[in-house]
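Q:
Got a chain?
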Amino acid sequence: MVAAGATLADEVGFANLTMGLLAERVGVRTPSLYKHVGGQEDLNRRIAALAMREAADAVGLAVQGYAGRDALAAAARAFRAFVVDHPGRYAATIGVEPSSPDDPLATANQRLLDAFMAVLHGYEIAKPDVDHALRMLRSFCHGFATLQAANGFQWSADIDESFEWLITFTDRGLRAM
């Protein structure tokens, strides 16, 4: 049920996902969904956890065997591809916080964080600056990908060239630290 909800969110937008629409999609009456999820909020949280797991898998797999700029580029490209391909499910992750340390969302968040930490290992980032560097990476990846997914780049410059330019710029900034 969660996978069907995530797919539907990608198609109609996360803000437009409802239990009624999901029930219609899977061919059941809305009350039947409550056998699988506790309601809209539970569905949303489960989609968020699924999306974070999928993003963590994509980024973690992409950075394996790479370091420095190569790891940065691989992580950024994988994250961007995930968000552009799955805008609805990714939108579910924004602003939702784990309810406890053993919440599946907390585990998925940590896995994605670990993948981005692996990128930073290729740079000489002082320990007090690691959190700042992680926030910068998240902002760079999230910002570009969500703008692209929302068709936010409507001028003539090639989007892929802009993205590669941003990877180079970020790499230089991290090296300068």
